[in-house]
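Attaching the record inline, Q. Sequence:
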Amino acid sequence: MKGSVQGVERFDSPGKGRGLRVTKPFKVGDLIFSCPAYSCVLSAKERGSYCEYCFNRKEGLARCGKCKKACYCNATCQRADWAMHKLECSAMVAFGPNWCPSETVRLVARILAVRKTQKEKHPSEKLMLIGEMQTHVEDVDNARREMNEADIAGLHRFYSKHLDFPDHSALLALFSQVACNGFTVEDEELSHMGTAVYPDVALINHSCLPSVIVTFKGTTAEVRAVTPMKRGDEVLISYIDILYPTDDRNSRLRDSYYFTCDCQECRTQSKDKAKLKVRKRSDPYEPEVVSNMVRYARKKIGEFRAIKNDKNILPGGFQGSLELREMCVQSLDEMGAVFDDANVYMLHMMYQAMGVCLYLGDWDGAIHYGEKVLKPYSVLYPAYSLNVSSIYLKLGRLYMGLEKRSQGLSALKKALAIMEVAHGKDHHYIAELRKEMK
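Structure, as predicted:
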């Protein structure tokens, strides 16, 4: 372990392989350990808002003089990042608008650069940091395999000037490792900032009843207890969004991580009835009607994601967002004939609708959907869920912007109570939020 806090050890977790457990008690909100990124990359969409090196959010960042795209807090951050930025700087200038590697390709390029540097500094040492992470090359489906092949082609196209590549099979294994073990770095509102690899955090096993939460301070991952933990308890995080019913969760786990969860919640499915709540009526719906609507909901969610992720459909963002909002309205009308507003598929579309309204500047629409989502979220998610605090944050900031100060302060205080546990009271997000509230 490279963690900064003592009290964690590796062990063989029955049925799961390696895992982590605590060697002393931890209270809710305690920092169990922190882990610097082995390698990380800022999302291209966030350039100009965050420092490329430390992921610090501030105004007045200085741009790289050559590519004019990468931004830094100061010359110190720029110099510290040059070993990574040089992989892209001249290529961005040379390719211009045709420079388009995926975020995964950018991360893998940096991992290869870090490996090369480590080997040069420690030629006799066996480098285990990435090698210990899980890989599932043999389990990858055709769609993922095609994506990996496209990413490998992109790696060769955009990074051949600065990198020597291992053979094809080794690259396939590396992309598989990153897919299984990479972390999405998010801000306090759960907006995507970048992607990173944290080998120590990757040792933590999954449960739909997690004992810890992973948040980020700059490029460092911090693991905090969200339930009281006694000596010997396993450190468990959720790899997926646990809002959804058991079948959906395990389908996602099988597709992305190649296993099925056997936690208590998956065995008992105790929350599934509430998550699949249907409208009350004197003549109950036939099971077939409900199952057909579940299939419809899953289909619409898939279509929404496809449109949202299709750069050809969303070239400028606005027109595509209008299409997405219309899809949300239509699917909510259709599902609402059978599902209660607290049904998770309704909540999913309302949450997406809130995001689209925020993008379009429709503040009243965003508030409408956010308020409908908030109460069911508070019931269905764990006590210290960032999914809940992010809704409070968004609503609080919307209220304050519309001069509804009393409502705004109330929502921000509730967000703060969750964030102090999830992020720690000394996090800069906490300081920023307290400043907002004043």
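The radius of gyration is 23 Å. The longest strand covers residues 8-13.

More tomorrow.
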